[in-house]
Write a structure and sequence with these properties.
- The chain has about 280 residues and is an alpha+beta fold.
- It contains six helices and 15 strands.
- A hairpin with a 4-residue loop joins strand 9 and strand 10.
- The longest helix has 14 residues.
């Protein structure tokens, strides 16, 4: 299956929110919800997520597809997760698996599907103040200041609820670092953070995974959770030293998410505020 053959939203547009409303949403997300202790945020989110595990939630799948996808046969491209024969809940639909992974001969691909809400040189990524602590892009990926070359390219893909929620290896190589960073679960939607759409990535709970490619260059992935995330789950065989092939699964999200990446070069076919697909050429 070619990467573009499962494209679910040919009329995709960037969401627009009036400035006053964006400020209000940001206040609720960062200043109110963001000041709730992180462990309570996770408990509340995990409780909320259980709604989507109930068998009754299975009835939401068909109406949801009709509402959100122009391709009414969209679900035929996927299968239930974990070897199940049927989608037993809405959560099963949310973590659906490809029946057949996209094909692409390009050596580097996009690891996920969603809105490319932030893109630019690492050196130009805005810093973020989190609870009086000034943080740089190195904070997102959990590395020492200067560890990532300022010439590297930073991208942040926001995964809307309707997007495919599994993360795949952007290149073939070796897993050289895995790191869990505890944190908050503030709202991810980038259009409420006008000047810094990646703000949640500086402070939210995340898994960082480094893949060193066959040329010895490191690709940094940061898999960031948001409100109502039950968990971020790494693939069972993810381990330091493991060899991965391009498009091997790295992780999945139970509900909302975003994926940041620092790569040796800039994306060649996509720009900020465009839609990217799993398996499309990076």
């Amino acid at each position: 299956m070619e990467a573009s053959s499962y494209y679910s939203d040919p009329h995709f547009t960037v969401f627009k929110v009036p400035g006053w409303r964006a400020k209000w949403y940001k206040f609720l997300s960062v200043d109110i919800w963001g000041n709730v202790p992180s462990h309570l945020q996770r408990k509340i989110s995990a409780f909320y997520a259980t709604i989507y595990d109930q068998p009754l939630s299975k009835s939401w799948i068909v109406p949801y597809i009709k509402l959100n996808y122009s391709d009414k046969n969209y679900l035929e491209k996927f299968k239930p997760p974990h070897g199940k024969r049927d989608f037993e809940s809405f959560q099963d639909f949310f973590i659906r698996e490809f029946k057949q992974l996209p094909r692409n001969e390009n050596p580097s691909i996009w690891p996920c599907e969603g809105l490319l809400c932030d893109e630019g040189k690492v050196a130009n990524v805005a810093t973020s103040k989190v609870k009086s602590d000034e943080r740089t892009v190195a904070t997102i990926f959990g590395v020492a200041e200067g560890a990532i070359s300022p010439a590297y390219s930073f991208t942040n893909v926001f995964l809307h609820n309707k997007n495919y929620h599994r993360i795949h290896a952007p290149v073939s190589g070796t897993i050289t670092r895995i790191q869990h960073v505890p944190g908050d679960l503030v709202v991810l939607r980038p259009w409420i953070y006008k000047q810094n759409p990646s703000l949640p990535a500086f402070r939210n709970e995340r898994y960082n995974v480094d893949i060193t490619d066959q040329e010895g260059k490191v690709w940094y992935l940061s898999i960031v959770g948001g409100p109502a995330v039950g968990t971020i789950e790494l693939s069972q065989d993810m381990a330091i030293g493991k060899k991965v092939n391009k498009l091997d699964e790295v992780a999945l999200f139970y509900l909302g998410s975003t994926c940041c990446m620092a790569a040796p070069f800039a994306p060649r076919f996509h720009s900020k505020n465009t839609f990217v697909e799993v398996g499309a050429s990076y």
